[in-house]
Amino acid sequence: MTYKEFYNWTKQYLGTRLENKRIDIVPIVEKLGEVNNKNNMEDRIKINGEWYVKENTQKKQSYKLGDTFSLGFDYEGMLDYGLQIDTNTSVNNLEKLLTSFEDVNYHREANPLYDLIEHIKYGNEYGLNDVVEENIDGSLRAFKKECEDTLKNIIGSTLRIDEE
């Protein structure tokens, strides 16, 4: 029995008994036990107040640079990618990563990435000096810290950022 079938059965069952104000909950609980385990709430996602069933076609895809929101979006993969960047990562790739972060509403995490991109662009245009290099390193550390903190919240494990 699917959730939809259970809903329809419950609607019919309650509809005939509400008039008499006599409801026996035992049949409802028994029917609920017949609902397929495949259709449990872990297979559902709530977006803007509406529940959606994750289909087999919506399995989590591995994150690819520049990916945008989907029901199977790999948040952990995006954050892992963020932890792997360094000062040698191209501005083009950083901007694609920024697009992913902003598209999935990870704006807090994206703020230091945006700063990093701006500092690198400034350094490329006007030349690197101690202050620009310090700003680049600081933004990179702040971005990785945001990624680490968010990953800790998602997977609950302890991660470590290597200080360079």
Give me the Rg, rounded. Answer: 24 Å
How many alpha or pi helices? Answer: 6
Share in helix:
55-70%
The biggest beta sheet reads: 2 strands, antiparallel
Which sequence of strands runs across the widest sheet? 1-2
Indicate the structural class. Answer: mainly alpha
Low-confidence stretches: none
In N-to-C order, the SSE pattern is HHEEHHHH
What fraction strand? under 5%
Can you count the beta strands? 2
Gap from first CA to last CA: 56 Å
Shape: rod-shaped
Q: Output mean pLDDT.
A: 81
Task: Give a short synopsis of this structure.
Helices cover 57% and strands 5% of the residues. It is mainly alpha-helical and 164 residues long.
Task: Give a written overview of the molecule.
The chain is mainly alpha-helical and 164 residues long. Helices cover 57% and strands 5% of the residues. It contains six helices and two strands. Strands 1-2 form a two-stranded antiparallel sheet. A hairpin with a 2-residue loop joins strand 1 and strand 2. It is rod-shaped. The model has no long low-confidence stretch (mean pLDDT 81).
Which descriptors apply to this entry?
164 residues, mainly alpha, two-stranded antiparallel ribbon, 5% strand
What is the fold's blueprint, element by element?
Layout: H1 3-18, H2 26-34, E1 44-47, E2 50-53, H3 75-84, H4 91-103, H5 107-126, H6 130-155
Antiparallel strand pairs: 1-2
Helix pairs in contact: 3-6, 4-5, 5-6
